[in-house]
Design brief:
38% helix; five-stranded antiparallel β-sheet; alpha+beta
Length: 194
């Protein structure tokens, strides 16, 4: 009996490893396409020659955050930056990509991954878009964006203040990463969200 179970486990492990090896290139290609689509969505109207990717870690409020910056370059100059940022929402990590122009104004955002409550926190996908109640497009987070409940000027998602705070924290942190702020400069974004 033990030999049969070990044999089945070894065969199934080999099959899973083979399937994983076959699907890895396709999954990588899909992820790269999704990233490129998200960059195009958050940097509307930005004309660039190439995109330069950079990974960085920034200490904000005593906590290390990892970011991926996608810099849109035109003629050797950065004309816009798309930043991947993550913060802890109500149901788990909330991962977004935010686009900034060279002055730091928000051009757009895309919700990449979340585990928020459907019908409530999941509304972050559209709630903060232009023309919606919590519109952040065109704003500059040099003064951290906060929800109105915390004295800010951004309307929180109805019944999802925690998600709204997490979303704005991710946006504020993305701005800090795009501007290359130091720990001392970046602390305002994290403390404003508490």
């Amino acid at each position: 009996m033990v030999l049969v179970l070990v044999g089945v486990a070894v065969i199934m492990g080999a099959i899973l490893a083979y399937v994983n090896q076959l699907t890895t290139p396709a999954i990588k290609a899909i992820n790269e396409k999704n990233t490129q689509d998200a960059i195009a969505a958050v940097l509307p109207g930005v004309k660039s020659d190439k995109i330069e990717d950079e990974e960085t870690t920034l200490n904000i409020g005593g906590k290390d955050y990892a970011f991926v910056l996608h810099k849109a370059m035109a003629g050797g100059e950065c004309v816009g930056t798309a930043v991947e940022s993550t913060s802890g929402g109500f149901g788990g990590d909330l991962k977004i990509m935010v686009g900034f122009d060279k002055e730091g104004k928000i051009l757009g955002y895309s919700l990449l991954a979340h585990a928020e409550t459907p019908g409530l926190g999941a509304k972050a996908d559209t709630w903060f878009q232009e023309g919606q109640k919590g519109n952040i497009i065109g704003k500059n987070p040099s003064s951290p964006l906060t929800v109105s409940k915390d004295g800010g000027d951004v309307d929180a998602i109805t019944a999802s203040t925690i998600t709204s705070r997490a979303f704005l924290l991710a946006v504020n942190n993305a701005y800090q990463a795009a501007c290359g702020k130091s720990e001392a400069d970046g602390q305002t974004a994290a403390t404003a969200q508490k």
